Amino acid sequence: MKKYIAAMDQGTTSSRTIIFDKNGNIVAKSMREFPQCYPKPGWVEHDPREILASQLASFRDALKEAKIGADELAAIGIANQRETVVVWDRFTGKPVYNAIVWQCRRTSSYCEKIKNKHAETVYSKTGLNIDAYFSASKIRWILDNVPFARARAEKGELLFGTVDTYLVWNLTGGKVFATDYTNASRTMLFNIHTLEWDEQLCKLFSVPMQMLPDVLPSGADFGVTAPEIFGCSVPIRAVAGDQQAALFGQAKNTFGTGCFLLMNTGKKAVTSQNGLITTLAADLERPDYVLEGSVFVGGAVVQWLRDGLGVISQSSETEALALSVKDTGGVCFVPAFVGLGAPHWDSDCRGVISGVTRGTTRAHIVRAALESIALQTFDVVHAMEQDLRTELKFLCADGGASANTFLMQFQADILGVPVLRPKIMETTALGAAYLAGLVCGFFKDKKSLCEQVSERTVFSPKMDDARRAEKLLAWEEAVSRTRFRAR
């Protein structure tokens, strides 16, 4: 009997591997960061080969930490950053261009041009707003800007995939070219009602259909790893976009590089009137529908404080700095580095720090940055409450930034409802492991997994209504100023 199951959690800034036992406990984990590329303002890229190398390195590190061999793993589940585009040579495996990351805004002007004529058609088929966030316009950009790429794609010589597809293709030695419903649903080329690639959408974005991978349920047979990679063949039995994996792992809002609020709406696709999108949930068969709100810059603002502004040396410093001052001193930070996502969908605005005085310190800026994560989440929660005509009773949180106690308490304060943080915050990886484990029989059934849900830390709101209203009004004004200046 195999004793362990592994999850590859390939994120925007790092690749991680976590090994779980049958009780859902973490046995070992490893993380490798990889470089971020910003060729021009608003452009974000990754080297796909560095993504692959970092993921393989983290996997081997985790095995070493657990003191086990790959032959002791029942299966691998993969969770990945969504929407990011990789195009590579079918024969050599070499990428024809860097991966264009979900945050990248280079195709914003093109998306704006086609909105008036095609927005309704695209939304009715995909549940998505036409935006540079999603994959389709990124694929088109590569085909139009890399020499000979379009001609080669039309001949079937090039393959497209989100990061999961690129990983699976490489892990299986090029034998499996597939993605899952959740990742396909983020491309703006996939019909979420028929569960098929849509020919009309592919023509709209000039993407040859022969580039596209097979689409499977999130929990399915994605082949086995080539034996030379880990010393033996390990079954790959799950693939899911990171946020849908987190939802399967019992989370509602992920505080990662971005912030993503997901609500399962069952077999009915909800049409949003408030700037949210409809997508697909991770499952073993036909997926449910999900209402989602996406914040482009969440925990990434902390990374910018460290790497861009240089006011901190590590992310863990932010909590103490934020608590060292009683408030932001009037500073408001709208981190629209790549525009604003839900519910605004404004690709033109950029980040603004306002209210700075001679008395402003780095602690005030750090606190304003952390508060901005919670305030953006408030906007998405409010939009979801309006769409579903219900009030949120509590918010379940996961993701790296949820480890920040100040942020979680402020989130509870600004929402006015409790925030629940699980003991095991690796919910994305846990969801991928659950999916893979259910497919291969490592876990018995969904009911038994629900019983494994760990204890949670509860953050109850402490802010009074007047103070909350004051903070929200200041935030609304700051966002308005940010969007106005973009015009």
Question: What can you see in these coordinates?
Answer:
The chain is an alpha/beta fold. 37% of the residues lie in helices and 20% in strands. It is built from 16 helices and 22 strands. The chain has helices at 48-66, 108-126, 136-145, 149-154, 163-171, 181-184, 199-204, 227-230, 242-248, 300-309, 317-323, 362-388, 405-415, 427-440, 446-450, 465-486; strands spanning 4-10, 14-20, 26-33, 45-46, 73-80, 86-89, 99-100, 158-161, 178-180, 190-191, 196-197, 214-216, 236-241, 253-255, 259-266, 277-280, 289-295, 332-334, 352-354, 395-398, 419-422, 456-459. The model has no long low-confidence stretch (mean pLDDT 92).
Average of pLDDT: 92
The amount of helix comes to 25-40%
What strand order characterises the main sheet?
16-17-15-14-20-21-22
| Model regions low in confidence, pLDDT < 50 over at least 5 residues | none
Based on CA atoms alone, the radius of gyration comes out at: 21 Å
- Oligomeric state, counting identical vs distinct chains: single chain
Quickly list its features.
single chain; 487 residues; alpha/beta; 7-stranded mixed beta sheet; 5-stranded mixed beta sheet; globular
Quick gist of this model?
By secondary structure, this protein is α/β, with parallel strands linked by helices. Helices cover 37% and strands 20% of the residues.
Task: Summarize the topology.
Elements: E1 4-10, E2 14-20, E3 26-33, E4 45-46, H1 48-66, E5 73-80, E6 86-89, E7 99-100, H2 108-126, H3 136-145, H4 149-154, E8 158-161, H5 163-171, E9 178-180, H6 181-184, E10 190-191, E11 196-197, H7 199-204, E12 214-216, H8 227-230, E13 236-241, H9 242-248, E14 253-255, E15 259-266, E16 277-280, E17 289-295, H10 300-309, H11 317-323, E18 332-334, E19 352-354, H12 362-388, E20 395-398, H13 405-415, E21 419-422, H14 427-440, H15 446-450, E22 456-459, H16 465-486
Parallel strand pairs: 1-5, 5-13, 9-12, 14-20, 20-21
Antiparallel strand pairs: 1-2, 2-3, 4-7, 6-8, 10-11, 14-15, 15-17, 16-17, 18-19, 21-22
